[in-house]
Structure formats: C-alpha cells, structure tokens
Specification:
Radius of gyration: 42 Å
Largest sheet: 16 strands, mixed
Strand content: 25-35%
Structural class: alpha+beta
Length: about 950
C-alpha cells in the first residue's frame, strides 16, 4: 500500500491518503532515449470528490518504507460526476527550470563539486544526495537554468533522479541523486518467447549488418595519417571460449547465423552484409577486434521491445539479459520504462529497444554498404582513394546522421564535382531529421533555414531549402535578425524605433521622445525622402507615455501617461498563465470632459481623503448626516451578565458564550468553545503555560509558537498585530477577536474525521461533534480529549436557557429628536384596510420626511432591502444584536447598508420614506426575538427598551 499526500501551492500538506482510497493511481517513469533529456515521470490519479483537496497544487507518492517521496506538480484537475481527477508531472524538472546559474566554469572538477557549485550559484534549495560518477568536468554554465545544466552533465555520462523528504506537514529536504546509470546490473535472464516476456514491437530493419570491418588508429606520416590498424593477424576460435570464429588473414568478423537470416542472396547462398567501423583511439589489434565484435553484437540483430509484469516498481534502469536460443545469440538490455498501478500493485516494465515515439535508431555509418568484400579484391589506387573518401565522409559527419555540424562538399551541394568543402551546416539536433533550425556558411555569407522537424531528411533537402541571408561576405548585416541581446554604447539617431511581435495586434513605437502603443501597421519598405513618410510607420494611437514641459519656462517639468478615447488604460495583475486582471483602469468611455477610472481588489489608502462630490458604497450614497460611520470588528459583548451568573469563573465563560452567540455561533458550537477553553486554560486570558518561556502556550486558547522562537504571549500579540486587534491582549475580548481572525486565516485545517470549514463549524448543532471538531481542526493536539465534549455539554446545560441582557438602556431611538409616536405597538384599526390588526412595531416621525435612520444598537445586518422578506415592510433593514434581539426599520426611501455588515450604534443605515403599504413618510420600528417571528408573542414593544 502506498502513502499519497496532497499539498497546497506553498508545498504544505493538506491531506494524506492510502492508495486503496483511490479509484485510479498510475505512476509512469521512463528513461528518455535521448541523453540530453531528463527522466520522464508522470502521475495520474482519481478519487471520490473531496473539497479539501480540489485546489491542491502538488501530489507526493511514497510506495516504500523510506522517508523519501516522489513529488508531482498538478497540471490539470477535473471535477466530473463527483470524482476528482488529476494529471501531474514530476515537479523537479519544472522547478529547476526556474533557477538560473549566472557563471560557473569548472576545470577538471569532480561531478559532486560541480553540482554543489551549480546549486549554490543558482540559489535553489535543493541538495545533492548520492553522487556516483568519478570522472571530471570541464565546461561553462553561463546564464542557464539548473535543469539545462543537469541535462548537460547527463550527456557527459550520468543519470539523475529526484526525491523529497516530508516531516510533519511540510517539505524539509529536496534531493538530487546522480548515478553513472540508474538501476543495477542483475542476473535476471529472459528467454526470448517465454510467457512472462511479451514482445511489444519488433523491427527487422533493412540496415542490419552481419559483418564488420574494424579499423583502428592510423600511422602518422608526414602531415597526416596513413594506413589504419586492422585485426587480420588476430585469430578467434569458439572452441577457445571466444564468441565467434575469426580466422587469421580475415579483416572482418561475421555472425554466420545472422548472415543466414539477414544476408544478401547471391547465386544460391547468402553473403554477409558488411560495413566499416573506425576507432581512432584504438592502437592494439586484439582490442580493435573486441570493440568491433561489441558493435556487431548490437547491430546484427533486429530491434525488439519487450514488456513484463514480474519486475518490481524499483526496477527502472536495471540491466537484464535476453537470450535467443534459436538464433544462438544473447545480449544485455535495460528496463527503460516502469508503469506502476498503486491500486492493485501491478507493475508493467518495458525493456529492450525503446521503439515508442521518436526512439533513437542505430547510428552506424553505412558509407561502405556497397562494398561486399574488400579482401576478395586487390586494392587498386581507385580502391585506396575510395577508402579515403569514406574515411573523409565519416570525419565530416556525412550519411544518415549528420551530427550537429555537417561539412558539405561541392558534389552534395550540386555546385561542382569536387569533394572539397563548399559549405558548413549547423543544426539544432543530433541529425538532420531531428532538426528544425539550420545555419549555413558558404561563399555567399551566413544564412538561416527552417523546416518542420522531420520534414528534411538529407543534406540535399537542407541545401535546397529556402533561406534568408543574415550577413553577406561584403559585411552587409540584415537587421531583421536582431531578435534579442544587448546593444552596448549604441546611439540610434532618428525619430522612430518600432517594436512588434509575430501575429501582433499592436506595436510599440519610440518617436520624438515619446513611447506609444499603437494599432499594428505592417511596415516593409519606407521611402524616407517623402515628407509624410511617418504615416507608413505609425498606426492609430492607443496610449502614450510622454514628457511634459512648462509653457512659461519652456523646460521639462514631468511626465504623463496619455489614454486615447475609445481605448482602456490599465495596470494589471498577472495570473501566471499568460492572462491578467486589472487593478487600476481608465475605461474606454473616459473622455477629456468626463474622465473616469476604476479600482479593483483590496487596498489601503493612507492619509486623509477629500472627496469632492458624492460617495457611494455598493450603489448606496453615503451622507454626512446621521451619526457615526465606523463599522466592523464588533464582538457583541455589552458587559452585562444574567442574574444567575455570579462567580468570576462563570462570568469568564459567560462572556465567551455571549460573544459567540453575537458572532453567529449556534449555541452548541458556542458550548464547544467553552469546553475547549476549560481544557486549555479554564477560560483564563492570562494563563501562561511556561511562565514566559518560548514554545509554551498563553491565553484562553493557549496560543503557542510551534517554532519555539518566542513565548506564547509574544506570539499571540504578533498575531493580533497582523489581525488588526487593538484591544488589551490580556482580555477575553481581544482573544475572542483573534480567534475569529486566526481560525479562518490558516489555523483551522479541516480533517477527514471532521471535514468542516470554520463557517460550517459555527453552525454545528451536535455538541460532541462541535467540541471534537475544534480539538482536531484548531488545537490539533498529540492526544485526544473526549472530556472536552463532557465539559461543553455541562456549559451548554448551564447557559442554554439564560437570556442575554440587553445592557440596560443600551438601545437608542432610530431617528433624531424631536420624536412623535404616530402609531403605538399592539392592536389597532389599520389605516390601510380599516380592519383590526396587530401592529407589531411603533411608528415614529420627527418633522423631517428624509431624516436619516440610525442603528439603535451595535449589531450585524441580516436583511437589507430583501424582496423575499415580508413584502409589507417596503425597503426594510434588520439588525441582529449581541443579546439575541433583532431590530427592524421599515418603509425607508433608501437603504445604506448591506447584509453581513457590522454597524455601530447611531450609524446611518438609510433614509426615512414611505415605501411599501404606507400612508406617509415614517419609520416603522420593531423589536423581535426571532428573525422570522412565528407568532405575535415574539414581537416586543420598543417602549420596553427605549424611552420615547
């Protein structure tokens, strides 16, 4: 069973799963066929929908008992049919691409030294783990990414793997391991055709060779090298333990079985398919024969790709043996791909020749495939010349695979019959068919060519392809090829510098000291002799950055950004995916006479603000009359206790209870806070677990610095500073405000046992569930605390039926004096219908038909101009107060507050009006103990709270 973790964008663990909780979990690792690319490593998972991980950014997988994980960055996430599906790729390759090495130039330094230097210079937080290669490195790494540097080291003969270590809920170590070769050489042997070894693909290619002529280092003669070393005088016998028979006097080695199968038919028999292989550094004939045999053992057989399910998930890179008895040969090969299904434990390994995708074909020169047997003919001057040609071709890189540089002679270029070099071709791949970009140097100068990868396969294709000359031999340089870089110490004199990109909709223009964004206008040839030549360059102006000057002094006095009518000017925030959203914007309908702007997002303005004109919030005009305008941060605590609450201890718990109820907690959730407060500190705001020592808790809920750097009180005060809590930190009031900020801002983490958000917790109605959810999701202790559910139940039973005092005269009239009560609370004759009705409020006037309506006490707006509420109130506002009461304000001409807004006593919430069923401007004002009163018994006379 595998352990699988989901992490957020900060690489913090969100949630942990076992693999048996998934519907799909498939991990694929593949050693690339090209040494210049790092290992391909992907993950595909799906599981039942879980809201806590739907926005995850990373997945970590551990199928061993070790501490190390493989970490994947999520590329795509889908939520369909109550399933979450993720596609991810190993994050290391992506992350290392963003760390840049400035300048490291090792000379004969060890692999470990170079890698550590690269890690240090790039500033990344990775460390080197295993490092096997003992060879030295001499190279230059100049302004390249860490990923590209590792690829360059891999081409020198190494392979890399990546892993991480996770401690607690965060990544504590990122590890790069460097091997000579991933995997190990095993004694595992497979028999070709056995059931456990499935043939995935077999390719009997036409360029198979069955015999090789080996040639070693040439003799130094004069100004070059002459006759090359051969192995004609070396004898091999299978009876002496050699793999093949090779008699003396024969300058080639042959696999007779392969000739019989793949040779050239001639006069009723099969002739060997021969070619030449050259080893410039071999000076011993026996060594030359052995190296030639090693090449023949690979190139004489067809390419075969296998798969098996009997190897483990850790077999990637391992070397195994394939034996083909019916053809009497065997060879070693690697496991290049492993696909692991973590649900059922099934592992499918691919080994042999990687024939999937753009696999590497054999790179053996075929320049002598037309010579069937050199030894059977007397070498003439022509033969000797031809051998020289072939050797020359090999050195130049001719043939199917050109290498990155190709020396083209006159014959190949089609310009002469000379074999002398005519031009030089540089390409971006190891061979022509794998290349897309080409640079050509010849007597015309330097030119560039481009094709789709695979479109050109021969040097003739390249030579005949369309090109654009960048630099001619007479020194003329085509400025169209200046695409990037630095022009140092260059003064460009002129009036227009234009910058565009391919498929542009706009262009950037520097002209006469101004920088403009213009509509794109294609510019080819410009006749600068024409007085109006600029119209051929400029497009319609969209925006401009200009210098300004003082008309009196004729001197520069500043700069300005100019927006043109019909276009927008915007300062945007990038989203990391090529799109952006505005923060500040001048809209397209802004004009010189009526300028406009828009601000988006949260922000801070420091200092006084002088608004000349009207000020609106959510479409509501804010007036200067009608009391205070502060709001937010209210705890609902009025300092009053029921007569049943007398002891200091009970008063501490009652304050938390009243504040929680005022903040919108259910009574059960409020009791859960009390049960946990009892377990942490007995609701004591100055409880100090460690006597001021770092790493210990402080306060009602024992805030603790888990890093051990500071005491609990200092840590708590630092949190209050971040939360904007300005009350005395050693009070329940301040600590309850901090709780309400801290929980939804990182401290509250939903668990699988209690998958509730903070908002959902506030509404829970089961005391045990609420108490244990707080323990698990907020406190997160090492040990469980079932006793806190018992304490929560006890506090609930003690407080549930007690009324929260109103504060004794804590309410004020909702309009300014002088006030007249135009209709009392209770039964009356309806002024609308003329029938008896219960008047559930009190009607107030003061002689001003547009007088501001004021909040009667501190509280939270729970209804504001809601058409779904009882329609006879017109424009209607309801405020919930800390004592559990609701006040209602009906028939307003305008509502100035919104649902969820905290308001202060005396704050303007609207204007008096006569909306809804009404006979004139007045304020219908009422008290309720339910938001939707179920009977007239739940309405209260305002005169019981306010003296009119």
């Amino acid at each position: 069973m595998s352990n699988i973790l989901f992490l957020d964008k900060m690489q913090q663990v969100i949630k942990s799963y076992d693999s048996d909780e998934f519907i799909e979990c498939v991990q694929t690792k593949e050693i690339t066929t090209n040494a210049s690319e790092l290992m391909n490593d992907t993950l595909s998972v799906s599981l039942p929908f879980d809201g806590t991980i739907k926005d995850a950014s990373y997945i970590a997988v551990n199928d061993t008992k070790e501490q190390e994980f493989s970490l994947y960055r999520i590329l795509t996430a889908k939520d369909e049919d109550n399933l979450l599906s993720f596609e991810a790729i190993n994050f290391a390759v992506d992350e290392l691409d963003n760390f840049i090495i400035k300048d490291i130039r090792p000379k004969n330094r060890s692999f470990s030294y170079v890698i550590n230097q690269l890690l240090s210079d790039s500033g990344c937080d990775w460390v080197l783990g295993v490092c096997e290669p003992i060879k030295t490195v001499s190279s230059t790494f100049y302004y390249t990414s860490m990923r590209e540097a590792l690829k360059a080291l891999q081409e020198l003969g190494s392979e890399f793997t990546f892993s991480i270590e996770i401690t607690g809920n965060k990544i504590t170590k990122k590890i790069i391991n460097c091997y000579n070769q991933i995997g190990k050489i095993t004694n595992k042997r497979f028999e070709y055709g056995e059931d456990v070894l499935k043939i995935v693909h077999q390719q009997d290619r036409t360029n198979i060779v069955t015999a090789l002529i080996g040639r070693g280092k040439g003799e130094e003669v004069g100004d070059g090298y002459g006759r090359r070393l051969e192995f004609s005088d070396v004898e091999w016998r299978k009876s002496n333990g050699k793999p093949l028979d090779k008699p003396k006097g024969q300058n080639w080695i042959e696999y007779p079985e392969m000739t019989k199968e793949y040779g050239i038919p001639s006069n009723g028999k099969m002739l060997p398919r021969k070619t030449v292989v050259v080893f410039d550094d071999v000076e011993d004939a026996s060594e030359l024969l052995q190296k030639t045999y090693d090449q023949l053992a690979y190139y004489c057989r067809p390419l075969v790709q296998f798969s098996t399910e009997i190897l483990g998930s850790d077999s990637i890179g391992n070397t195994v043996s394939i034996h083909r008895g019916e053809r009497n040969y065997h060879y070693q090969t690697r496991v290049f791909k492993v696909v692991t299904d973590h649900i059922n434990g099934r592992v499918q390994a691919s080994l042999g020749d990687n024939l999937s995708g753009n696999s590497i074909n054999r790179q053996l020169s075929q320049v002598q495939s037309n010579i069937s047997d050199l030894d059977s003919n007397k070498m003439t001057w022509y033969d000797s010349t031809e051998i020289g040609k072939y050797q020359d071709d090999i050195m130049r890189g001719a043939g199917a695979n050109g290498g990155s540089i190709y020396m083209v002679n006159g014959i190949e270029a089609g310009v002469s019959q000379s074999r002398e070099t005519y031009e030089q071709v540089f390409m971006d791949g190891p061979k022509i068919q794998d290349s897309q970009y080409f640079m050509i140097q010849n007597n015309a100068g330097i030119s560039f060519k481009q094709c789709k990868k695979g479109q050109w396969t021969t040097i003739q294709d390249v030579h005949n392809g369309a090109s654009t000359t960048a630099w001619t031999l007479d020194g003329t340089f085509n400025a169209s090829f200046i695409a990037a870089g630095i022009l140092a110490g260059v003064l460009i004199q002129g009036v227009v510098v234009k910058s565009i990109g391919s498929n542009s909709f706009f262009q950037s223009v520097l002209s006469n000291g101004a920088f403009s964004i213009e509509q794109y206008k294609e510019t080819n040839n410009v006749d600068y002799t024409k007085p109006d030549w600029q119209k051929d360059v400029h497009g319609g102006k969209v925006g401009e950055f200009i210098g300004t000057y003082d008309g009196n002094t004729k001197k520069a006095n500043g700069s300005a950004l100019i927006n043109y009518p019909g276009y927008i000017f915007s300062i945007n925030q990038d989203d990391g995916n090529g799109s952006s959203t505005p923060v500040f914007q001048v809209p397209s309908d802004s004009t010189f006479d009526k300028p406009k702007f828009k601000l988006f997002g949260d922000g801070t303005l420091q200092g006084d603000i002088n608004i000349k004109g009207n000020f609106y919030v959510n479409g509501v005009k804010i007036d200067t009359n009608g009391g205070g305008n502060s709001g937010g941060g209210d705890t609902g605590w009025n300092g009053k206790y029921p007569p049943e609450v007398t002891s200091d201890r009970d008063k501490r718990y009652w304050q938390i209870w009243a504040m929680a109820i005022g903040a919108g907690f259910s009574k059960q959730a409020a009791a859960a806070l009390l049960g946990n407060a009892q377990g942490e500190s007995d609701a004591n705001p100055t409880a100090d677990e460690g006597g001021g020592r770092p790493g210990f808790g402080y306060g009602v809920w024992q805030w603790t610095d888990s890093s051990g750097a500071s005491s609990g009180r200092v840590y708590m005060i630092n949190l209050m500073t971040r939360a904007g809590v300005t009350d005395d930190p050693d009070t329940i009031t301040a600590q309850f405000k901090l709780l309400m900020w801290h929980a939804p801002n990182g401290q509250w983490i939903a668990t699988s046992s209690y998958p509730y958000s903070w908002t959902q917790f506030m509404t829970l109605t089961d005391i045990n569930t609420a108490a244990q959810a707080f323990v698990s999701n907020f406190e997160r202790p090492l040990n469980s605390h079932p006793e806190r559910s018992t304490w929560a139940q006890e506090w609930y039973d003690k407080f549930v039926n007690l009324e929260i005092p109103s504060g004794g005269g804590g309410y004020i009239a909702p309009i300014a004096s002088p006030i007249t009560v135009s209709s009392e609370f209770g039964w009356r004759i309806s002024p609308i219908t003329g029938a008896q009705e219960f008047h559930n409020g009190i009607d107030l006037v003061n002689g001003n038909p547009n007088t501001p309506i004021l909040a009667s006490a501190d509280g939270t707006v729970v209804s504001a101009a809601d058409p779904g509420y009882f329609d006879w109130y017109g424009n209607w506002t309801v405020i919930k107060h800390a004592d559990g009461m609701y006040t209602g304000y009906a028939h307003q001409s305008r509502v100035d507050v919104a649902v969820g807004q905290n308001v202060k006593q005396g704050q303007q919430i609207g204007l008096m009006g006569t909306t809804g069923p009404s006979t004139g401007e007045h304020c219908h004002f009422q008290f309720m103990d339910e938001f939707y009163p179920s009977s007239s018994a739940h309405f209260h006379n305002a005169r019981d709270y306010i003296k009119f």
